[in-house]
Amino acid sequence: MKKVAVVILNWNGKELMEEFLPSVVNYSPREWAEVVVADNGSSDASVAMLKEQFPTVRILQLDTNYGFAEGYNQAMKYIDAEYTVLLNSDVEVTPGWLEAPVALLDQDTSVACVQPKILAQRNQSFFEYAGAAGGFMDRYGYPYCRGRVFDVVEEDKQQYNTSIDILWASGACLFIRTAVYKTEGGLDANFFAHQEEVDLCWRLRCRGYRLVCVPDSVVYHVGGATLNVENPRKTFLNFRNNLLMMYKNLPQHDLSYVMHVRFWLDYLAAFKFLVTGQPRNAWAVVKARRAFLRMKSAYVPVRKENLAKTTLPSIPEIRQGSLLAAFYLKGKKTYAELQE
Prior knowledge:
Distance between the termini: 47 Å
Structural class: alpha/beta
Number of helices: 12
Radius of gyration: 19 Å
Largest sheet: 9 strands, mixed
Shape: globular
Helix content: 40-55%
Number of strands: 14
């Protein structure tokens, strides 16, 4: 059994894998790391290409497209390495990328997840939007990162080169103890895609695990390779999944107030989409709220289980103030400014 399994979920991503898989294979020592591609029912020539060009890669052929979340859950049934790296197919890794995260996991059993520093593959002097140097969230469910607050992405000037405890690690490159993933329920299959890793990490943090960003490890992520920022489907998934995540994980004393505030903030977001000429995105927000209400009753037992297993009722990595107010009213555009 290898110590590390690097698991890449693929769906019709032949070109992406041809571009980025060589770095993963070259910089993942075969003595203790295995590279695995879980194919999510692709209809392109992905599997044939893998067999021909990457004979050392293990291929798991899933029978259909399970989506991002359930696709990884299915793949993890076949993983028995001590640590697993969930890695997007559009990530370029660098020499030694596995060493520092694995060393931390070896040294500190309180750490369940590790994220490297994630830079933009197409503009490598800047952080990457969906992860940067570690993820946080405000009390109303708005995620942000060291290196990215809303749409402001910082240039990497080594300002976040220290390791730090975080609330969530980006699903683009997430190191996790395999046993913890399986024991604590993995990714929420109902999310399909988007914010499923934030939900998992928040769940783990509530249960007393630590999550850490280790910037000694660096990877480059393209991002947006499946759905672009303006895609209404992505808007729908982000809003719906965020509401589900909040309902699942918020402490009881915060639930009513926070969800009431979110009602008004979500419709404010829909109004902004509408007046800026994005009616399909506005409608996606409305549909997301309706979908959340339809699904809410099914999540009552899930919420009860999460609350019963919570050992850390107050989480320091959740900002108690409003990120929206800090960003738009106080002009705090970076992580460093938010700490002032």
